[in-house]
Amino acid sequence: MDHTKTVFAFIGFMLTGFLVIFFGRMSEEDNGKYGQILTNYQTNTYARENCAKAARSKLSQPLYMPTESKTEGASTVVLSWNPTAESPHAVSCRYEQGKGVTEVKIDGVSIGPVSIDISDDPASHAPGAWVEKHWGH
Known about the structure:
Layout: H1 4-23, H2 28-56, E1 68-72, E2 76-81, E3 91-96, E4 100-106, E5 109-110, H3 130-135
Antiparallel strand pairs: 1-2, 2-3, 3-4, 4-5
């Protein structure tokens, strides 16, 4: 029995696979863009969670999704919640990566220094996080 066709088909299949892998690699520029997208998503998520906690310390109702989000540079996010039927207050919050919540305004009035408990923050449980290294979470 002649297996020549089978061998050529297998070689063709392997060659096609190698070509797809070789030409399908991401460039360094694409890797950088992908990493920036993940960093922005992570920063926005932490900003939304921590700003909601900070505002909740002064408001009687929780805040959910912000109505507006602005990014200032690579590490600063400003979130805004417009008044609604559930929450009659306008809230603005500034979050800086590495510093946390730096400013919260409710109805245009700053609430002063903000201190929130981030012990249940997912970032504090990430591998390599300071809290994990020192407290064993």
